[in-house]
Each structure stands twice: as C-alpha cells, then as structure tokens.
C-alpha cells in the first residue's frame, strides 16, 4: 500500500506500491514508524530502484517532514542501514508524472539505547547466540554450513560504543562465479567473472557492490585479468554506483595493481560485447 503507520517493535517487509512490479506515476506515500520510548529504529533495505534524481524516498529523524532529514534516496543503489536518534521515523516517497521503476523493499527493527544491534546470521551460516539485544561485552560466534567458507571474522564482540568489533562474516562457496553480487564481509574472495576459469559469455552485464564497515576503506587485488581488448570492460567506481568517481576502466590482458577506495563502498561493472570471449578475471578484497 501507499503508506501506513507502523507501531510494532519490528516490522516488514514494507514495499513501494505494486512491488515487485513498477510503482505508479505521481505517487505520494508516507510511512510513520513509532516504537516504544527509550528505543531507536534501524531501517534496512533489501532493494532500491527509483527513477534517478526524479523520484525520491526521503527519510526523517522524527514524526514528520519537519524533523532532520537522515537520507534522500534516488536511483538504483544498495542502501546501508539507516538509524534514528529517537523512537520515531518518517518516510515520504514521491514520483513524477512519467517513467517508473521497481521501487524498494525495507524492514525495520528497534533496540534499547546502549545495546548493539542484532548483527544478523549469514546465509548458509549459524551463530551461537540467538538473542535480539546485545549488551556491551557480549560475543557472538559464527560458523558456516558444510561446503561453505567463512569470510571475515568468526567472533565479534559488542563494544561500549554500541558497535560491533567487526562486521558479521559471510559464508561463500569457494571460487564464487556468479554474475554480480553484494559483498558485505570485511574481506572477501575469490570472486570471479562468470564461468571462470573457462571463458565468460557474450553480452555479459555483471555488477558487484562491496560495502564494508563505516570508517573503513577497500583494497581490491587481482590474481588474473584477461578480457577482450577494447571491447569488454571492467569498470571500478569509488562509491555505491556508476555516478561515483571512476577509479579504473580495465580491458585486455594485464597485471592489475591493487586498487584502493576512499570510502567504505566500491562498485564494479563488467560488460562484454556480442563476440569473442576470454578467461576473465579473479579478485579478492
């Protein structure tokens, strides 16, 4: 539906109208989230795709649009969790009279002041503590299911700053070859082009988003790189999308020096044309 009042301590998924089909023209939707006093709210997005710089989701740190704005989101992007400073949050989504996209899907949780947020459980993994609220000094221990490799830190501890000592790890199949993914472990890899070490296909269009803990930066390291020269490209951006500063546009067969971001996000896009393929590439970060 187009807006609602949400009063449960946690909720979702909540979506834009018609999701996963496209939302309509001239939408004007408002959501108000209210949780128990003494708690704060964390908003988490599964997907976000609106008409870039035209259709917006604005998020406010309070009961209405007169309170401080936390984020104003537009375009296609991964969205890091957004946290309030009080027990209320207000969201407003508007679209113009033409061009629509799939929209967005979010959920939210709340937590008592002074505690760490639930760090989550990785897909294909487990943890030893299923609490939903974590006091300073409390440690969570992670393991992966058989056949999966743990990337990141196995044990993380809630600090007095209400943050975890590290991000939750991920559980990956060694040598992941899918065409794009969202990578959130503090370190990861190997990540490869499709079919690696066999040749990738014609007309590939793969996108990887790397997001690490705020305050950190990313170093990308390649073990191999071989794509069709001046026809197939891997482009690397210093941020969450292709609107960020371009760090490198790679093509051909070459040795690639480490590439470093200036923030906690990096975006990679690989494209191939309609003929002639090569082995591709393999990287870690």
* Number of domains as seen in the coordinates: 3
Integer average pLDDT: 92
Order of helical and strand elements: EEEEEEEEEEEEEEEEEEEEEEE
The CATH superfamily title of the largest domain: Spermadhesin, CUB domain
Major sheet: order of its strands?
Answer: 1-3-8-5-6
Give the number of DSSP strands. 23
* Global shape: globular
> Helical element count?
0
InterPro entries: CUB_dom, Sperma_CUB_dom_sf, Sushi/SCR/CCP_sf, Sushi_SCR_CCP_dom
Domain CUB: 2-111, 179-285
Domain Sushi: 114-173
Pfam families: CUB (PF00431), Sushi (PF00084)
Q: Which features characterize this protein?
A:
single chain, 285 residues, mainly beta, Jelly Rolls, Complement Module, domain 1, 3 domains, 5-stranded mixed beta sheet, 41% strand, globular
Write the topology of this structure:
Blueprint: E1 4-6, E2 11-15, E3 28-34, E4 39-49, E5 56-60, E6 69-73, E7 82-83, E8 88-94, E9 103-112, E10 125-127, E11 139-144, E12 149-151, E13 155-157, E14 170-172, E15 181-183, E16 191-192, E17 205-211, E18 219-226, E19 233-237, E20 246-250, E21 259-260, E22 265-271, E23 280-284
Parallel strand pairs: 1-3, 15-17
Antiparallel strand pairs: 2-9, 3-8, 4-7, 4-9, 5-6, 5-8, 10-11, 11-13, 12-14, 16-23, 17-22, 18-21, 18-23, 19-20, 19-22
Short description:
This protein has about 280 residues and is an all-beta fold.
């Amino acid at each position: 539906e187009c807006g609602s009042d949400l009063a449960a301590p946690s909720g979702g998924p909540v979506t834009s109208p018609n999701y996963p089909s496209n939302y309509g023209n001239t939408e004007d939707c408002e959501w108000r989230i209210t949780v128990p006093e003494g708690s704060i709210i964390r908003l988490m997005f599964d997907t976000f795709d609106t008409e870039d710089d035209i259709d917006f989701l604005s998020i406010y740190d309070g009961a209405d649009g007169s309170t401080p704005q936390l984020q104003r989101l537009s375009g296609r992007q991964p969205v890091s969790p957004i946290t309030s400073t009080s027990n209320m949050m207000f969201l407003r989504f508007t679209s113009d009279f033409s061009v629509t996209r799939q929209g967005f899907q979010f959920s939210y949780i709340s937590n008592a002041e002074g505690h760490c947020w639930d760090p989550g459980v990785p897909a294909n993994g487990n943890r030893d503590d299923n609490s939903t609220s974590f006091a300073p000094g409390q440690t969570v221990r992670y393991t992966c299911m058989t056949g999966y490799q743990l990337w990141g830190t196995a044990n993380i501890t809630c600090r007095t700053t209400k943050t975890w000592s590290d991000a939750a790890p991920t559980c990956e199949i060694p040598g992941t070859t899918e065409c794009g993914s969202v990578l959130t472990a503090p370190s990861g890899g190997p990540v490869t082009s499709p079919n690696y070490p066999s040749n990738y296909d014609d007309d590939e269009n793969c996108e990887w988003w790397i997001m690490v803990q705020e305050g950190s930066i990313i170093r990308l390291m390649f073990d191999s790189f071989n794509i069709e020269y001046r026809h197939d490209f891997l482009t690397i951006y210093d941020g969450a999308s292709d609107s960020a500063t371009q760090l490198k546009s790679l093509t051909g067969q070459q040795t690639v020096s480490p590439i470093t971001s200036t923030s906690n996000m990096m975006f990679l896009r690989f494209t191939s044309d309609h003929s002639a393929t090569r082995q591709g590439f393999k990287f870690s970060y």
